[in-house]
Design a protein that fits this description.
The chain has a single domain, classed as 3-Layer(aba) Sandwich (Aminopeptidase). The chain has six helices and eleven strands. Strands 1-2-3-4-5-9-6-11-10 form a nine-stranded mixed β-sheet, sandwiched between helices. Strand 7 and strand 8 form a beta hairpin.
Length: 222
Amino acid sequence: MEYYRIQSIDDPRFAQMYKLMQEVFPPEEVLAFDLWKEPLLDEGIHVYVAIHDNQVVGATEYRYYSDFRVAMTDFTIVGQPGLGVGRFLLKHRERDIQALAEASGTKPIGMFAEIYDPYQTMHDFGGVTPMNPYVRREVLSHIGYRKLDFPYVHPSWDHEGQAVTGLDLCFMSAYDELGELPSTLIHDFLTRYYSALPNKPEAWNQMMQGLSQKPSVKLLPL
């Protein structure tokens, strides 16, 4: 397989990836095709696909915030079972984030991810077995993700300003003994991460207000 970076919506591989996104994610989680133009030009946003037999069979998007010393996995898509796509993306992403951290002279403390709660969502993720929310949650728990102990909601990526629920904000810490995160880190990270979406639901505002009123948030098993 080839690990290939996409940096333009005119890249034919982007159309393949976008089709995959539409097949596996709910509509409110998919940014409109044309609105990808600017994010793909951002050097800080890394969008890679796994190519097998000249076809996109998986994809991942991530970023590293050197001032926070945290990474964020925006999404991971395994489009076909039996090819080792998930591990292929994981290992390449790990190496890339490590290189980004070294280039910035920082040492990461961990990585955020939004992980679907299968007990809250009925979406079937295109029927692709590795994308099943029960499977994904167990795999992500196995590699070290834990959920942050607060009710999570985020603004919809369709720019409609709707509250998206059914996910947990999770964190894979670099140190197993880390039992909580400062609320200011979570608040400031989310503020920056969702700055691209101007329309925020009231539930988001309430969540952020709640975060600003507590010193820390516990990390719990998935």
